[in-house]
Write a structure and sequence with these properties.
This protein is mainly β. The chain contains one helix and ten strands, in the order E-E-E-E-E-E-E-E-E-E-H. 8% of the residues lie in helices and 40% in strands.
Length: 164
């Protein structure tokens, strides 16, 4: 779960033996097997292999076996490195009807000399989740919209009439 400048919506779906975490950004879907065991270490994936369990009112999720082909994870402000030896331990604790406390710890002897931890809060939202997609003009969308607004604000010019 990486903070971005936009599209920071997450949807949590819980069913009998699985918790699913859907991210609006890049529409990633994490499958967390509850009270399960990890897949073999030879099976790696972009999102890793997640197993979860309840510690009283806290959902704990351990993720291992990230793919080595996607070792760089970027946000607008941070670069994270992961390897097949990375372990991420996350804890989601409801602190009110509208807020989850999110704490994560990253361990990886390949890239880090010691484990490190981050913490933030996730707020409940009634916003809809949209497809996170790019299109051909998104790099110039601001200019396109500014030009359109300027055009809308300019009164039309009157063409002089020519009488014959």
């Amino acid at each position: 779960m990486q903070p971005m400048g936009d599209a920071n919506e997450y949807l949590f779906v819980q069913i009998a033996r699985t918790t699913v975490i859907v991210s609006e950004t890049i529409h990633d879907v994490r499958i967390v097997r509850m009270n399960g065991t990890h897949s073999p270490a030879a099976v790696t994936s972009w999102l890793g292999d997640s197993v979860g369990w309840w510690e009283h009112d806290t959902l704990a999720v351990e993720t291992k076996y990230f793919s080595s082909s996607g070792f760089v994870r970027l946000t607008r402000r941070h670069v994270f490195l992961v390897s097949p030896k990375t372990t991420v331990l996350e804890r989601f604790t409801r602190v009110s009807d509208h807020e989850l406390n999110y704490v994560f710890t990253v361990s990886d002897p390949t890239y880090y000399t010691r484990s490190w931890t981050g913490e933030t809060h996730l707020l409940r939202s009634n916003q809809k989740m949209y497809e996170y997609a790019c299109h051909e003009g998104n790099y110039s969308m601001r200019n396109i919209l500014e030009a359109a607004r300027a055009n809308d604000a300019t009164p039309p010019t009157k063409t002089p009439s020519i009488s014959r």
